[in-house]
Amino acid sequence: MKWQLAGRYALFNSALFNSALLTAFITIGLPSGVLAAQEQDMTQIHITMGGTPGAEFSAEWRITHNDETIEYPEVLGTVPAEFTFEGTVLEGTVKLLSDDERLEVDIVKGSNRSRSSTQGKGGTLTVVVR
Hints:
- This protein is an alpha+beta fold.
- Helices cover about 30% and strands about 50% of the residues.
- The protein has helices spanning about 1-30, 30-40, and strands spanning about 45-50, 55-65, 70-80, 80-85, 90-95, 100-110, 110-120, 125-130.
- It has a 4-stranded antiparallel sheet with strand order 4-1-6-7, with no helix packed on it.
- The protein is globular and about 40 Å long.
């Protein structure tokens, strides 16, 4: 019985060692293009506006990237709508302009996702994604 336990333990150690080598290869051996794509995923911000089709909204997006903040106003948008920005921080204010309709805002940045919704004229959403 001792030999079998030792054998399993040795196999387990070997699997851990192989896993560590594979992790090192994946981390160190990635081509620079793959690393650049991963970095871009962390700075690409995608916004999807959903809810009641035709619902009207206004939005003010503030995108910060490399210590510079740029504002992108959307005076009168309609659902559905999509926006894509490049940045490290998104701050936004979205206001529903239509009566008795629903507005849903879905924001994705890297592996982070923010979902918000409001219903009724004047409903306002304030979002921050880092």
